[in-house]
């Protein structure tokens, strides 16, 4: 059976539905954004500066990177701002998202409880001074020190899973703990004195004692913020937004946000 005419017919039937998703400049640009970028203030900085320069309203739709990219794939948002390279690469290769721009660079940090100051500072798992994140996580697992997992699907969660694989450790009970639904993992780690992984921008804005940065600077902890467009919706300002945030104006915004830097 020749399926080609049937396929052409189905595609022709689907085209009007895609065209119906076209929007106007009167509609706000729906930007799905990783929650930690909102917590760090980076997303609002881009939103405000872009609106000021272009007059286009941007509505932030926060969520985990995984949920945001799922919404982008389904056409529930016009554009996305995330740092989840594995999912971003998959969507781009599958042709489910396009017009990808790297707009900011940053890194994750391992934070944990610290007592004392300077050379006398110590942490329960003895990780202070370690520069190799793989070695540090292996020691943490061996010590069974309490670790609060970042929110499932968040950029920090996706990033820490890559780091655990690098450490050749499968985190689990009783020391690898998941925050109850509706509970902020970083706030829980601070209140219980546990270890966790968080992006530096969020830590600088929301972190505090008794936690401190334990491990930082390993190249494997680097992260990049990416903007992409959906294929299923066509907001006239979506392409402009990608060009603006990845250009000179966007680099200035990223460079002024604590914990982030602009990239070319």
Automatic annotation (TrEMBL):
Domain of life from the UniProt record: Bacteria
Organism placement in taxonomy: Bacteria, Pseudomonadati, Pseudomonadota, Betaproteobacteria, Burkholderiales
Residue ranges of domain PBP in the record: 38-221
Protein name: PBP domain-containing protein
Pfam families given in the database record: PBP_like_2 (PF12849)
């Amino acid at each position: 059976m020749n399926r080609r005419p049937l396929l052409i017919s189905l595609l022709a039937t689907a085209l009007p539905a895609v065209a119906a998703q076209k929007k106007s400049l009167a509609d706000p640009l729906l930007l799905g954004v990783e929650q930690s970028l909102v917590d760090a203030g980076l997303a609002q900085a881009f939103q405000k500066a872009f609106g000021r320069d272009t007059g286009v309203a941007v509505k932030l739709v926060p969520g985990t990177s995984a949920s945001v990219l799922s919404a982008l794939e389904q056409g529930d948002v016009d554009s996305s701002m995330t740092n989840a390279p594995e999912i971003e690469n998959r969507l781009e290769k599958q042709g489910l998202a396009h017009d990808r721009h790297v707009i900011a660079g940053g890194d994750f940090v391992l934070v944990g409880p610290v007592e004392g100051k300077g050379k006398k500072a110590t942490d329960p798992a003895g990780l202070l001074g370690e520069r190799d994140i793989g070695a540090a996580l292996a020691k943490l697992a061996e010590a069974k020190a309490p670790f609060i997992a970042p929110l499932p699907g968040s950029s920090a969660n996706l990033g820490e899973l890559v780091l655990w694989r690098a450490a050749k450790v499968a985190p689990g009970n009783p020391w690898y703990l998941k925050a109850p639904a509706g509970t902020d993992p970083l706030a829980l780690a601070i209140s219980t004195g546990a270890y966790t992984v968080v992006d530096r921008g969020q830590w600088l804005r929301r972190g505090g004692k008794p936690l401190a940065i334990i491990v930082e600077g390993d190249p494997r902890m680097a992260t990049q913020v990416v903007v992409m467009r959906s294929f299923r919706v066509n907001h006239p300002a979506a392409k402009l937004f990608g060009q603006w945030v990845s250009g000179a104006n966007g680099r200035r915004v990223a460079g002024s946000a604590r914990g982030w830097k602009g990239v070319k």
